[in-house]
Amino acid sequence: MTGRVSGKTIIVTGGGGGLGRAISSLLAEEGAAVGVIDVNGAGAEDVARSLTEDGARSIGLGADVSDWRAISSAARQVGEALGDIDGLVNNAGVAALGSVHEADAESWRRIMNVNVSGVVLASKAVLPGMMERRRGVILNIASIAGLVGIRNMAAYCASKGAVLSLTRQMAADYASFGIRINSISPGTIASTEMGLRLLGGDESPEARSRRLARYPMGRYATAEEIAQAALFMLSDEAKFATGSNLILDGGLTAV
């Protein structure tokens, strides 16, 4: 441990599993007190318990980021338990396959509510305190799906494109308050539930070979690799970065 976020209190939404768990764990290893928030409250509590057993300060809470009362209450509880919020990772997200002509209206709304409104509401919950203290970092987990068109993923692509645009807008609004707002755009993380869902569940050798051919590095990302990038963006090492999007896709969007 090098203590790159030592003394900071950071909330991770969607922290109960997959990428959120990897980010929460690395932040705790690097000295942060971590508020783990997830719609799956038991998952959030399990992660927080594990971090606490390893010597970190952590609290796990169940909350739906698209529900203002729930996420604002959870953020307040994190602050009361762990101290002023220094950072927020907007990681909570959902996905579904489907093109526009076959999009289910309820599924579309849910994806937009969680992936876009959830970023707004979680940020709204922590921004007043950050503005008062004139410091803070918000990191939005976007996706390469917000940068390129991916077949059969209309709602997810639209939502992540919105996250990228929102990141730039928020960076412009809050830079004068000493608050940095950035995003990272991972490629596929096949080891997570979200990654498997986006792959459509087809893990046959033929399908895997076809998909991997799009990645010049010839493999998918690991959750731990994305967590390392998140740590950098949340640390003081990135203190001149705001409105930036860090692409982590094994070269997919470069070719």
TrEMBL record:
**Per its UniProt record, what Pfam families does this chain match?**
adh_short_C2
PROSITE patterns of this UniProt entry? Answer: ADH_SHORT
Q: Which domain of life is it from?
A: Bacteria
| Keywords for the protein's UniProt record, in alphabetical order | Oxidoreductase
Q: Which SUPFAM superfamilies match?
A: NAD(P)-binding Rossmann-fold domains (SSF51735)
Entry's family note: Belongs to the short-chain dehydrogenases/reductases (SDR) family.
**Protein name (database record):** Short-chain dehydrogenase
* Organism of provenance: Methylocystis iwaonis
